[in-house]
């Protein structure tokens, strides 16, 4: 195994992208597309491409493991990206113009080649190459299989490469240095395959050992601990795992057991706020916010409740775009890659005739690519008059309750010293609404498993108290908190 060159200026590292890196990758793709590809597309083609790279579309494929995305980094800067579908089809392959010619494109293609041969086990790699990219793909060992096509204003040439799990991609790099024709390329490919056949077992074993050991060493770097059930997301593998390491089907909001009464007199509907600003070339602006709406109630109360539900969902959009602070404006102006974005999902955790509890998960970029945050919010509403409950309205924040909560939260966190930096007095302050500088934002909600209370956590970067949790709550059955209930009528 050859050693990597020392990291420094000009060093390019290629690895799989994490979930929070998808949006910066799409921003890069759009910038390069507008400069290099859009001139050969019709307006219809540009519009179709915009639909292709919508965040919710790409994120859905990523989370469903339909695609794998790779990024090329110089230090912490993303300079290129490539994606591949599970059938071995390459798409969204772009490298920043100023960074082209440094080998990033070659390394990205090599990463996909290895993924296709060793992981996907496909027999060929395909791509629909933009007109200006055809010569580059030929140099990488691919060849056209059909004339140029134009569909919905998008011009491309279908290309492919026959691959083998026992071959090594080094041949493609050597062919790039030699100006050989396609016939010689095919001969060299065949020779490489035949030669490698004698050492198939050795190569596959070595590759598997390298992948397993390399991923094992870096696994912790990709774990993002979940707020619910003591498990964690693994952004490398894209799955949710519990403490025992067994993969679970659901995590985050999906793991909250909902309790919705049957035959409600009102209907629960879904509303979506969607906005993308393609006109501002220097700032990436995109919002996709989902939230519930009630229909069938008394009109005045219904309007009040629906306004509250929308306000909680749109909190980030309000703060970073509709009514930004001077500090937010300065962040955008000073950012190398300005970005304003919010993607919100929700879960109706509890719904009865006179009470509603809703939780929101908000992924947002607050001014730049570097300012990525995930925030959790919950709202609890009296449906008779639209009253929004605070913690103090439902629970007596006593010393004994704080002790019980802290003991439960640490049990759920597998015994980790969660919140060891907080005194009991600090916890009581946060439950009363003081977030201590925005770090500990209290939230509570009702669900199928009872009463849940905890924090949306916003530690500063490199804070030693940050154990990797995005949000964290402790759950209590009704009988466990009977002695602490404030509004008995609401609890009933």
Can you describe this structure in just a few lines?
The protein is α+β, with helices and mostly antiparallel strands and 492 residues long. Helices cover 34% and strands 29% of the residues. It folds into 3 domains: 13-163, Gcn5-related N-acetyltransferase (GNAT) (Aminopeptidase, 3-Layer(aba) Sandwich); 256-388, 2-Layer Sandwich (Heat Shock Protein 90), CATH 3.30.565; 392-492, no CATH class.
Please explain how this structure is put together.
The chain has three domains: 13-163, Gcn5-related N-acetyltransferase (GNAT) (Aminopeptidase, 3-Layer(aba) Sandwich), CATH 3.40.630.30; 256-388, Fervidobacterium nodosum Rt17-B1 like (Heat Shock Protein 90, 2-Layer Sandwich); 392-492, no CATH class. A hairpin with a 3-residue loop joins strand 3 and strand 4. The longest helix has 23 residues, at 200-222. The protein is α+β, with helices and mostly antiparallel strands and 492 residues long. It is built from 15 helices and 21 strands. It has helices at 22-37, 43-52, 55-63, 104-120, 134-139, 170-177, 182-197, 200-222, 299-313, 315-322, 326-334, 391-394, 399-412, 424-431, 488-491; strands at 13-16, 67-74, 77-85, 89-95, 124-129, 143-144, 149-151, 154-162, 223-225, 232-234, 239-241, 247-248, 259-260, 267-277, 284-295, 338-351, 355-368, 372-382, 440-447, 450-457, 471-476. 30% of the residues are buried. It is 34% helix and 29% strand. Strands 1, 2, 3, 4, 5, 6, 7 and 8 form an eight-stranded mixed sheet that branches. Mean pLDDT is 79; it is low at 1-9 and 170-250.
